[in-house]
Write a structure and sequence with these properties.
Distance between the termini of chain B: 11 Å
Strand content of chain A: 35-45%
Oligomer: heterodimer
Number of helices of chain A: 2
Radius of gyration of chain B: 18 Å
Number of helices of chain B: 8
Distance between the termini of chain A: 45 Å
Order of helices and strands of chain B: EEEHHEEEEHHEEEHHHEH
Number of strands of chain A: 22
Strand content of chain B: 25-35%
Largest sheet of chain B: 5 strands, antiparallel
Shape of chain B: globular
Structural class of chain B: alpha+beta
């Protein structure tokens, strides 16, 4: 369950759970989060919560809404974002108390039944997502869905090209381009002649690997021909491929 | 009608780095031009049961039916293209089987599965899908997502609530709005697409596209296209290197040559000698 922590001058004043679909912030008393300060407009901003995601929207306030030092009109809130309203700060916290242990469970795919009431719009804040689960499994699935707010970053937030720290290159030792260097910056680098012999060097978190792709003959590393399996490359390995010798080396 | 020699198919499925079970299920038949991928959901092993039922029902029934029916023709009674009709009927059948098992056996309660099926015939393919398993097409150097997820996130993107960029940060990734086996009736989304020799089609579960960006998928399909099996393994490996938080399944289909339907007596005769 996501929540906001209201503070001023580093003093925590209040914690607010984001259980409603719309949580309003403003100076006037009818707001869900009332901040009685002249720098805050009567209806200053609103937080729209859809299941585990929350969006902050400025409602045309006089002094504007600032998130992490940036003035915003509409903002998709991320864990630990700081919302500033005059002297007040609202910290957005969206993590599960259970921690990472059950993270795998939380991510399990669930069905939102077509036509079902949007869970965030449901009146009962205690079990806002139960309506999302298929009826027979509601009790069990409800638990599972409750907390997709994991402390882990969403999967795709991690760059897909998560590379090893080190970089590497190939230096050609023979052939027309002898002496030339080829930096291995891409996740995949192919070597050789298409239709004759091709190998690929993959850059992975564990290091660099060479794999045979096509052709009757396999690449040779340090005098030994490879099989169809990927082969981990070590610093100063010598690769022979389509009649060309090259040296693999790691860069500082 | 046999499509032997027209399609090259490679696949790979893996539980990933976090899950103990593989709830994905894949099946293919190159001769019939048929590929099926399902990503099951539900407690214990119910997800595996649901996805397994979906792929088994669809592939075995269609293998049988495609011997008797010609997919490109139009059904006189319903006015529907036979391919669409076959897919509709068999998806409905799979849905009923899963739904009934889920209703009658407590350990299967609430199980369901996503589905993506492609049927190749007459220089085109008919794609049916339900949920967030996807089909991509690599043509030249352009990777294009052909299916549109039935998911909360996709609905939010469509209605402008969030941008595709923001969707990557969302915590609501795992909510599909349509699945097989959840309701007595399910409506698959079915479309036709022209195919060209050289096209590579990728069917995958969300375990791939949640962990690997489109750019890296495209790069792999381009650089490893000469070795489809290796390409499929590489995609799974990349998803695992990036965390492998879900089961990962990949089916790759390369169109090797034209495969026009053999209409008329001469065409049918010719097709015997292929």
């Amino acid at each position: 369950m996501a929540k906001l922590i209201l503070s001023m001058d580093g003093l925590v004043l209040k914690e607010i759970n984001l259980t409603k679909e719309r949580t309003t912030i403003g100076r006037k008393p009818h707001n869900d989060i009332q901040i009685d300060n002249l720098a805050v407009s009567g209806e200053h901003a609103v937080i729209v919560t859809i299941l585990q995601d929350s969006f902050l929207e400025d409602l045309g306030s006089t002094n504007g809404t600032v998130v992490n030092g940036q003035s915003i009109k509409k903002h998709f809130l991320q864990n630990n974002d700081i919302i500033e309203l005059g002297k007040y700060k609202l910290k957005y916290v969206n993590e599960t108390p259970a921690g990472m242990a059950k993270a795998a469970d939380f991510e399990k795919t669930m069905v939102l039944r077509p036509g079902a009431t949007r869970p965030a719009a449901s009146a009962a804040p205690a079990a806002p997502v139960a309506a999302a689960a298929p009826a027979p499994a509601a009790a069990k699935a409800g638990d599972t869905v409750q907390g997709p707010a994991t402390t882990m970053p969403p999967a795709a937030a991690k760059p897909a090209t998560s590379a090893p720290q080190k970089s590497a290159a190939l230096q050609l030792l023979s052939g027309a381009n002898a002496g030339k260097e080829l930096d291995l910056t891409k996740p995949l680098t192919t070597l050789g002649k298409p239709g004759v012999q091709v190998a690929v060097i993959t850059r992975r978190p564990q290091g660099f690997f060479i794999t045979h792709v096509e052709g009757a003959s396999f690449p040779v590393v340090n005098g030994k021909p490879l099989d169809a399996q990927a082969h981990a490359l070590n610093d100063h390995d010598v690769i022979e491929l389509a009649g060309v010798k090259m040296e693999f080396f790691l860069k500082a | 009608m046999s499509l032997s020699g027209a399609l090259e198919i490679a696949s790979c499925t893996d539980p990933g780095m976090v899950r103990a079970h593989n709830e994905d299920s894949i099946a293919s038949d190159g001769e019939k031009g048929l590929v099926v991928l399902a990503d099951g959901m539900g407690g214990y092993n119910a997800g595996e049961v649901a996805s397994g039922m979906a792929t088994t029902v669809i592939i075995t029934e269609l293998q049988h039916l495609l011997d008797k029916r010609t997919p490109y023709e139009t059904d006189a009674a319903s006015g529907q293209v036979i391919a669409h009709q076959l897919l509709h009927e068999q998806i409905a059948k799979a849905n009923t089987s899963i739904y009934q098992a889920a209703q009658s056996q407590p350990q299967y309660a609430g199980m369901g599965t996503t589905l993506v099926v492609a049927l190749f015939y007459d220089n085109k393919m008919t794609v049916a899908h339900i949920g967030d398993s996807r089909l991509y097409r690599m043509r030249g150097d352009e990777l294009k997502q052909i299916t549109k997820d039935h998911s909360l996130l996709q609905e939010q993107i469509d209605s402008g609530v969030i941008t595709p960029q923001q969707a990557k940060q969302s915590q609501n990734k795992n909510l599909v709005t349509r699945a097989l086996g959840i309701d007595p009736i399910v409506e698959p989304e079915i479309h036709d697409h022209e195919t060209q020799p050289g096209d590579i089609y990728l069917l995958c579960s969300d375990g791939l596209c949640d962990m690997v960006g489109d750019e890296d998928i495209g790069l792999a399909l381009q650089t490893l296209s000469s070795n489809l099996k290796l390409c499929a393994q590489h995609l799974v490996q990349t998803a695992n290197d990036n965390g492998g938080r879900d089961n990962i399944s990949v089916i790759l289909v390369r169109v090797l040559r034209d495969f026009p339907a053999s209409r008329g007596i001469v065409g049918k005769l010719m097709s015997w000698f292929r």
